[in-house]
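Both lines are given unchanged directly below:

***
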Amino acid sequence: MSAKEEAAPTRYRRVVLKLSGEAFNSRDGSRNLDPERLVSIAEELAAVRSLGVELALVVGGGNIFRGLPGVQSGIDRTTGDYMGMLATVINSLALQTALENKGVPTRLMTAIEMPKVAEPLIRRRAMRHLEKGRVVIFAAGTGNPYFTTDSAAALRASEIRADVLLKGTKVDGVYSDDPQKVPGATRYERISFSEAIARRLRIMDTAAFSLCMENNIPIIVFNFFRKNEILRVLRGEPVGTVVEA
């Protein structure tokens, strides 16, 4: 990245980025937690921080364990959801290490207290970390079963008064149908919360939409794995899909 690119102004001051657990998988699916992927993600996030953006992260745990499918294997929903929350802590520890290896000061905070590995989630402390230029990783979801990490991302964005919630995915926005299954699916550039809910678009769950809608926090869905795409989003370029009031 050139010095000119690094100096470019950003549209947002404080952001929450949601990454799914699958973001940490190797491309061939042979590893649930791939070191090369972690390095690549850390490099992208280090570039974001170099722009002066206050960055908070929420990561999923689906690469290790998903709560809901556990019901089919004899694990009840509540236990499965807690197992999924612990999986997000594993991913978060790995990402924290990758970021600090790039010289990025990082703080890991968990909704389920585990002082041996992370700080307890205290809102004011998290905001203070952000103000000091540290990247904050929010782990263990909301700390409660029956809530997804999408809902956790919307909750944390509301709590810390983020300007925007970014959802980094493997596709370049929100489509009318699954573009991998329906070749003629239409990509939306902008869509309202109410329309996304009414059309049952599977971007985020309804609880996440409702929180962002009530607190006037736009959601931008974009392809995180396209080089420097997140930087384009932060500069306000027409990238991905904007979901707003």
